[in-house]
# Entry
Amino acid sequence: MKKIWLIAALIFIFGCTRATPNAHDLYVGKVIGDYSTVINHPVSINLIMLEDKANESLEEALKEVSIHNEAIDTVDFTIHKGTSVQGYRLINLELEINSDSPGIYSFSEITLTLQDESQIQKKIGTIDVIVLEEETAALDPPEYTSAYPTLEFKTDLKNNTNQPIRIVSIEGYNKGLKFGDLKVTKNGETIDFIQPNETFHMEATVTKQKEAPFYVSSPRITFEAENE
# Structure
């Protein structure tokens, strides 16, 4: 019997696309992303922005963030400041989001409410949030796998089941990426079945289907047990 498991892969592809500035002089890096979680288990998403250093920092001005999808709640937010370039500061708006019902929910805009109660609507690209009823610990992954500047997927995993398994495929919900050419190896040698508690290496090619400055993906890994 084939089973599906999800792994979080943070895939950054930096592009030169400029987002449109708004009244608060913010440039938002558009993202095509998909995040996987389970009901009532908050997950963090990251939005990359540039702000004008001459104005009040968004860190001090921001009061609240809401997502344009009623099925998703914003639990908390954090702003991480980065380096400055030509009068602008790089910031990472980290949103902790949650949903109490399973499903696939999409959003492409957020509303920023400032301390003076004024609001700014921002288009952020397209993000799909896959909310599951429960999660499986069949495979033990790293928290994130980053791909920059080369677009690729590489990770080390562990078989946490009590029987040998074989990796069948990897595919993503992400509308901007396609996974292919799957390779499963151990110490540089191709393997078919992974034994219980065995760590293995997995690679896959990733090709762009749509252009965006940033991509984030939680691809689905399908595997089957040796005796099922």
Observations:
- The helical segments are 58-61.
- The CA atoms of residues 69 and 107 lie 6 Å apart.
- Confidence is low (pLDDT under 50) at residues 3-22.
